[in-house]
Amino acid sequence: PLQFGPDEDLEHYPRTLQADQQMLTSEGVDLLFTPDVVTMYPQGAHDSTVIDVPDVSQGLCNDFRPGHFTGVATVVARLFNLVQPDAALFGEKDYQQLAVIRRMVDDLGWPIEVVGVSTVRESDGLAMSSRNQYLGAEERRVAPMLYQTLCQLIGEVKTQKKDYRTLENEAKEVLAQAGFIPEYVEIRHADSLRPADPGELNCVVLAAARLGAARLIDNVRA
């Protein structure tokens, strides 16, 4: 629960354990570890030691979900200590989260290979997410524009014809006109997540926007 803020959707967050179990079984998975809150936080979630990862956890989603990445780093660290994995796979859709976990593992010297898994998309480009079920029919029709806008933005980055901050603002305006409430659209260095300098091509464009009851995030690498 640490990664959810007081006004977020912890109680209503989609939980699909049975469906997940069926998919994992069909893929030949041998073991599934599904610890409860008491196992993860024996002292209580809000009375436990927490991990705060510097730099990559700042800005972007953290500006709109303060404390989120402290919760993410803490629960993942606890999971790693319980499981002692050789490798851990995380989706690239949550790009900042992946960067936070990689930085934590590197800083703490854990012998764990953190592997980024490519974003899985619907046929129209919308990144798959459990929160997509919050979308109404019309919102679902509009939702792929987030990915389309980021693809267009990364194309503009490659042409190097406009200032990056101008491109970010133009992309936010496109999303707003389509019915989104943009939280951020930013061009960042793909590894450090610092704001990319003009002319820099090792970039990722990241965005978060609300559409109806859903908060959607996505990113595209240059």
Automatic annotation (TrEMBL):
GO biological process terms, semicolon-separated: pantothenate biosynthetic process
Q: Which UniProt keywords apply?
A: ATP-binding, Ligase, Nucleotide-binding, Pantothenate biosynthesis
> Which enzyme type, at the first EC level?
ligase
Q: Which reaction does it catalyse?
A: (R)-pantoate + beta-alanine + ATP = (R)-pantothenate + AMP + diphosphate + H(+)
- Give the InterPro entries listed for this entry: Pantoate_ligase (IPR003721), Pantoate_ligase_C (IPR042176), Rossmann-like_a/b/a_fold (IPR014729)
| Pathway participation | Cofactor biosynthesis; (R)-pantothenate biosynthesis; (R)-pantothenate from (R)-pantoate and beta-alanine: step 1/1
The keyword Isomerase is annotated on this UniProt entry: no
Q: A cellular component term (GO) from this record?
A: cytosol
Q: Which GO terms describe its molecular function?
A: ATP binding; pantoate-beta-alanine ligase activity
Q: What Pfam family is a match, any one?
A: Pantoate_ligase
Keyword Ligase belongs to the record = yes
Enzyme Commission number(s) of this protein: 6.3.2.1
Give the protein family. Belongs to the pantothenate synthetase family.
What is the protein's given name?
A: pantoate--beta-alanine ligase (AMP-forming)
The source organism is hydrothermal vent metagenome
Classification of source organism: unclassified sequences, metagenomes, ecological metagenomes
